[in-house]
User: Fold these one by one.
Assistant:
Number 1:
Amino acid sequence: MPDLFELIKTIAVSAVEARRPVEICFGTVQSAMPLTVRLSQKLVLGKESFIVRQGVTAQSFEEGDKLILFRMQGGQQYLIYDKKGGL
């Protein structure tokens, strides 16, 4: 019976995730060459996890830059939207 419960739970979580295809999050550039971005204390991602707009390269960022990221459904890829700034 626990297997049935886990299956129902998985289906429910998948249904909720399907309603949120994109999530906005923030990260901090750890290194520009090669590009690595820290999303949390335990999660640091490399360039293979990111999608960028045309004309944007790793040289566009410096260590310590705060980035606005869009996490694609499933969490495997992130779009680097822009650098975080203030008014």
Note: Residues 2-19 form the longest helix (18 residues).
Number 2:
Amino acid sequence: MSFRTWLFTALLAVPLISLSMAALNRAINYTPVMAAATGVEAICYLYAEEDGLLSKTTMTSESLPCDKAEKLQASHPAYRDRTVKGDMKISFEYVSPADNRQHSGTLIYSYERYRPLMTLEYGANLPILAHETDPEKVMQDLDSLA
């Protein structure tokens, strides 16, 4: 096998193995659990890209609450071509399968992809993945949100 072929194979194999290991870890060690939302904090910014002759320029606004960013994008002519981006920090309580006790946690979700989560009210259901042996470990259950 030539060096180029070996290198190409290695470059393809490493990401695939990494994704497979993450999926295997999720399948073996995590259980779907329904959590109760206790709070949602969202910080956004307005984002734009401009293609130049030789480079791409990105522009971002200062951080601001997502509802204000949405209003600014809709109403201000200078921001109409920009995209609202940001993160939502969702706090929740859940019963861990590891010890059958109630715990609290937080997870970060992409605002632009999971915008409907902004309307979660206190006590609303939020699907998460809880670790089967470590009560403090949780992950996003993105399959349930899709």
Note: The helical segments are 3-29, 66-75, 142-145.
Number 3:
Amino acid sequence: MKGIVITVPDVETRLLAIAQLRKRGFKGQIGTLCYHYEEEQELKRVGADYVIHPLVEAGNQLAKHMLGVGN
């Protein structure tokens, strides 16, 4: 397996899932969501490789569409 994406809404569940994957030797990439900036470093600390902020991403996409960028 190359990687896994964890999208569970609860941050504690995401932290536990990532930590358990790493503890059990998962070497693939782990991507996850982050709804609050203060969670990002903790998610990375326990083993997440990629952390995205879905509301920020949605805002960026909305702005691009409204400005006609990339169309």
Note: The CA atoms of residues 29 and 58 lie 23 Å apart.
